[in-house]
Amino acid sequence: MCLFAMLFPGQGVQYINMLSSFLKKEKIFQNTFKEASEYIGYNLLKLIKKGPLNIINNSKYTQPIILTSSFAIYKFWKKYNGKNPSFMCGHSLGEYSALVCAKAIKFSDALKIVSLRGQYMQKIILNQSCLVKAIIGLDKNIIKKICRKYASKTVSIASINSDNQIIISGNKLDVHQASIECKNNGAKFILDINLNIPIHSHLMKPVSKKIESILKNIEIKKPRIPVINNVDVKCESNSENIKKALIKQVYKTVRWKEIIDFIQSKNIFTMLEIGPNNVLTNLNKKNVNLISLHTSNKKHFLQALKKIN
């Protein structure tokens, strides 16, 4: 029996004409997007087919699109009698996808949360320019030290994706300056991330207050499959604890490397990415212990189904 974990991606994996190999024939995808579009009040299917890209990249639309994509792929997985994973986890926004698929949150409720979450995040940049950078090949303690230089907490470590890749975000000028310092301290590469919002930074604290307010009226049940959260690397079953983690998640560091380490500590070495891209799969490439599979198109979906079942 193949034990595996399901990984759900976050913002930044979207592109025009994504999921095209599924959408041509598969009713599950068409119906899931139709349901989401009716709830959001915007034709998400038309948007991912034709763009424009600037609207797809607006968090108000990006977040429902990615949630809907992952949920549709998961439903397709279940239609083909795909096995249940031992664990689920989501990178940032992907945590909501994991909770929906684990039947902890209703799809309609999650759509409401992530649509508003996206809108509130987008508003943060109305009064200031923000930047997100990937620092490749520099020790996290050096990066932490550089971020601490900004006393007003305008630069944060947004995500520790692997030993080799750490994301920083915050105020545009300060992140730019911090990335130069990282380069001067030995970083191999500094890469631009296609996001204009200061994800998982202290600048997001006002958004966390809004999320807290929304979650008060949302029912969250015990996940049927354990979901490892971003902020504590824990599988919570209590509704209030899940909500607290989602509130903190907005401005806290995504501890992705620790999540992958946690899964491996349970003797699980097969990872299946449920989403429209293969970003999380690529992060695992250097880990020789892992078998990493993705479902970004029908061909890879069927390959993963065969290997796991």
TrEMBL record:
Residues 7-300 form the Malonyl-CoA:ACP transacylase (MAT) domain. Pathway: Lipid metabolism; fatty acid biosynthesis. The keyword Transcription regulation does not apply. It holds the Pfam family Acyl_transf_1. It catalyses: holo-[ACP] + malonyl-CoA = malonyl-[ACP] + CoA. GO terms for molecular function: [acyl-carrier-protein] S-malonyltransferase activity. Keywords: Acyltransferase, Transferase. Its EC number is 2.3.1.39. Belongs to the fabD family. NCBIfam families: fabD (TIGR00128). This is Malonyl CoA-acyl carrier protein transacylase. It comes from Buchnera aphidicola (Aphis helianthi). The lineage of its organism: Bacteria, Pseudomonadati, Pseudomonadota, Gammaproteobacteria, Enterobacterales. The gene is fabD.
